[in-house]
Design brief:
Largest sheet: 4 strands, antiparallel
Number of strands: 6
Strand content: 15-25%
Structural class: alpha+beta
Distance between the termini: 42 Å
Number of domains: 2
Helix content: 55-70%
Length: 237
């Protein structure tokens, strides 16, 4: 059945609205993919979905009026929507940033992908699904990370001299503070005067209520420590 003009307009406005709501939440967090990006993704998904529905409706009507040609006609209402799901991956990938072993933008990429599904739902006319999914997405984006404090893994970059002495100090310090070493990357720079400067990257699993700033201040006072800093490793952004 063909979609009426007012119904079509309502679906387009609703698709733009649900996309804009999620995009606004992303923009409040300072993400590049904000209101406009999410609105356009949702709107575009709805347009493509309704175009597929209209094309399928036209084919069915044509087959009824021309039964002798019905055997050469085919319609698959999932074809274009499947292409939306595949194609939106390229846009989502553009929001993911990898630098110095850290990854950011995964949640925004996921939200863009989910927004496309909202647009498809609105385009198909599943209003309750689209609206309820919008509120669920908002809850996930705004509340889940607060309710479940699971970000206990940090990366600590330490630049130092006197390798053996400093490594023993760090090993004892980690043990004393109940810090578990997940992985370690080592590098050594040889200077012209024959001395060396070491730079290690530790991936650490921290105990509950661990204060990283206090720990860095304490460790940084060691005579061999030249530089100490954390690297953002949170994947949920």
């Amino acid at each position: 059945m063909s979609i009426g003009q007012w119904e079509m307009l309502m679906r387009l406005l609703l698709a733009a609205s649900v996309g804009g709501i999620i995009g606004y939440e992303r923009e409040l967090r300072g993400r590049d993919a904000g209101v406009r990006t999410h609105t356009l993704v949702s709107l575009g998904a709805a347009i493509i979905t309704m175009t597929q529905l209209e094309a399928s409706s036209w084919l069915l009507e044509f087959a009824r009026n021309n039964p002798e040609l019905s055997h050469v006609l085919s319609s698959d209402i999932t074809r274009l929507t499947a292409q939306i799901v595949n194609g939106i991956g390229f846009l989502g990938a553009g929001t993911i940033i990898v630098s110095k072993r850290s990854v950011t933008g995964l949640t925004t990429a996921a939200s863009i992908w989910a927004i496309a599904s909202l647009g498809i739902a609105v385009g198909m006319g599943y209003y309750f699904m689209a609206i309820s999914s919008t509120f669920i997405m908002l809850i996930v984006l705004k509340s889940v990370r607060t309710l479940f404090k699971i970000d206990r893994t940090k990366q600590l970059e330490i630049k130092y001299k006197s390798r053996e002495e400093t490594l023993n100090f760090l090993k004892n310090s980690f043990r004393e503070h109940h810090i578990t070493i997940v992985s370690t990357d080592h590098s050594i720079t040889y200077l012209e005067d024959g001395s060396t400067v070491c730079e290690d990257l530790y991936t650490l699993h921290l105990p509950v209520d661990f204060n990283m700033m206090d720990y860095m201040s304490q460790v940084g006072t060691h005579k061999n420590i030249l530089k100490i800093n954390t690297i953002k490793t949170t994947f949920d952004n």
